[in-house]
Automatic annotation (TrEMBL):
The keyword Glycoprotein does not apply. One of its GO terms (biological process) is cardiolipin biosynthetic process. It is a multi-pass membrane protein. It catalyses: 2 a 1,2-diacyl-sn-glycero-3-phospho-(1'-sn-glycerol) = a cardiolipin + glycerol. Residues 239-266, 415-442 form the PLD phosphodiesterase domain. Keywords: Cell membrane, Lipid biosynthesis, Lipid metabolism, Membrane, Phospholipid biosynthesis, Phospholipid metabolism, Repeat, Transferase, Transmembrane, Transmembrane helix. The chain crosses the membrane at residues 7-24, 30-49, 61-79. NCBIfam families: bac_cardiolipin (TIGR04265). This is Cardiolipin synthase. Catalyzes the reversible phosphatidyl group transfer from one phosphatidylglycerol molecule to another to form cardiolipin (CL) (diphosphatidylglycerol) and glycerol. Pfam families: PLDc_2, PLDc_N. It is found in: Cell membrane. Its EC number is 2.7.8.-. It comes from Priestia veravalensis.
Length: 502
């Protein structure tokens, strides 16, 4: 925290120095002094940057930004470049979560699941993920794939109406539009019936959520908290780290997780966006307990209310599963990030790797794993939307096509509308569905949560849907891609400069 204060003191001095230099009639000697002061501050900042021991190219990039973009570059560095901040901003949350998960895992040791029926590559991932995430693989869960908004929200609404004891919801984005108001009205109705309703939303993602809607929820008895309000997170930069999770847990028996936020665009009813392709999961059984633990950790962080010590919120409700399931959360409150789990999946593939993601800004580790897999003869296919919802994300994604295509990876451009699902399918029997994109923000800045499925019947639905999506996509052919114009290549190269924060 001391360094944060120093950084903002530096910024204040730079701003004042710049104003005095450009907008006052100070003498030449004073202006030389101001330039010297600015140079000293930049030198100290660059030296501090070197001590962070980042990758050489990252260090050099930020040196260039600090040196060639006075003041503006420093502001950009403060709010976009210093990912190490998560190390202490969320230290207590991370430690508390980890210790609680370890205790929960210890209690479950006697009921350890036999993983011998898994294939070698599945078992390798399961043993790794259990060891580092402290969440258990279980065979007492049924997973159902929900395709697109109509199916997802129809199932969510029906489940919410059947709630008897509690509804716990956590969303990155909820709008005060028709769908958002319908969901909130249902929460109000259930709260008036005596059902405990707790709801937390991300402040930035849900910036369009009206204050009057929040007040109505609270007045009706719904407990509502915003995650990391901007006003309290500006100077310590907590606002950089967003809660991208989408979680619903009902009575500890039913859970929902996946790519869909709450808003009319997710039903395909936003004229500017058009058709919206997405995937969600409905879970029944043991994995709901782990998904619920993720919510309870976040709830304690925003509200101070510790519910995970109460058995009625943490008891396991098992069912006859149709495969193996594991819930894994990542973010500033964990030591690992989702790229490590994606890498572990990719590295154990023997036949195929199918990926569907709206934002493809992979780190070097993921790119290397994909290239090596393709060169080994593994069928690697990646699907991304033709039109993205942002200039930088669209062209940064396209900037990676060349090296992937050269390695034999097939890139499919989804044409029907905006494709927002986050799916990884390995060897037809192992898959991930969740909130984490294949980009740096999901890997390093966002709180995410994914469900990992092994030998589950739901995987066959994911495969079927992926094949259907390929029919609505165009394979990007190498010759045509390499013939793209200079303007397109320039856009890609420019956008790629910002890939570290996308």
């Amino acid at each position: 925290m001391k360094k944060r204060r120093v950084d903002f003191i530096f910024l204040f001095i730079m701003l004042v120095s710049s104003y005095l230099f450009f907008f006052t009639d100070l003498s030449k000697e004073w202006k030389i002094a101001l330039v010297t002061l600015y140079a000293v501050l930049i030198f100290i900042s660059i030296y501090s940057l070197m001590l962070e021991n980042r990758t050489p190219h990252s260090t050099l990039l930020w040196m260039y930004v600090l040196f060639f973009f006075p003041v503006v570059g420093y502001i950009f560095y403060l709010y976009s470049g210093q990912l190490y901040l998560k190390g202490y901003l969320f230290k207590s949350k991370r430690m508390n979560n980890r210790e609680t998960l370890k205790r929960m895992t210890e209690k479950e040791k006697e009921a350890k699941i036999d993983l011998s029926s898994l294939s070698p590559h599945q078992r390798s991932f399961a043993e790794y993920s259990e060891r580092v995430s402290f969440t258990k693989v279980n065979n007492g869960t049924k997973a159902r794939v929900l395709k697109n908004g109509q199916e997802t929200f129809s199932e969510i609404t029906a489940s919410l109406k059947n709630a008897k004891h509690f509804i716990h919801m956590e969303y990155y984005m909820i709008h005060s539009d028709k769908l958002g108001k319908e969901i909130m009205s249902l929460l109000i109705e259930k709260a008036k019936e005596g059902v405990e309703v707790r709801f937390t939303f991300d402040t930035v993602g849900s910036i369009s959520l009206s204050g009057s809607d929040v007040k109505e929820l609270r007045d009706s008895g719904v407990k509502v908290y915003a995650f990391s309000p901007i006003k309290s997170g500006f100077f310590n930069q907590k606002f950089n780290f967003r809660n991208h999770r989408k979680i619903i847990v009902i009575d500890g028996e039913v859970g929902f997780v996946g790519g869909l936020n709450i808003g009319m665009e997710y039903l395909g009813e936003n004229k500017e966006i058009g058709f919206w392709r997405d995937t969600h999961l409905k879970l029944v059984g043991e994995s709901v307990q782990t998904l619920h633990a993720v919510f309870l950790f976040d709830w304690e962080y925003v509200s101070g209310e510790n519910l995970i010590i109460e058995e009625r919120y943490t008891k396991t409700v098992s069912t006859s599963g149709d495969g193996f399931t594991q819930i894994i959360a990542t973010g500033p409150d964990t030591h690992e990030n989702m790229s490590e789990y994606y890498y572990a999946m990719i590295a154990c593939a023997t036949k195929s790797i199918w990926i569907s993601t709206p934002y493809l800004v992979p780190n070097e580790t993921i790119r290397t794993a994909l290239r090596v897999a393709a060169k080994k003869g593994i069928d690697v296919r990646i699907m991304v939307p033709e039109i993205n919802d942002g200039f930088l994300t669209q062209y940064a994604t396209r900037s990676y096509f060349g090296e992937l295509i050269r390695s034999g990876i097939e890139i499919y451009s989804y044409q029907k509308g905006f494709m927002h699902q986050k799916i990884v399918i390995i060897d037809d029997d192992f898959a991930s569905v969740g909130t984490a994109n294949m980009d740096m923000r999901s890997f390093h800045l966002n709180f995410e949560v994914n469900a990992f499925l092994m030998n589950s019947k739901a995987i066959q639905d994911l495969i079927k849907h992926f094949e259907e999506d390929m029919e609505d996509s165009e394979l990007i052919k190498p010759v045509a891609f390499y013939k793209r114009g200079l303007i397109e290549r320039s856009k890609e190269s420019f956008a790629r400069l910002f890939s570290g924060i996308l």
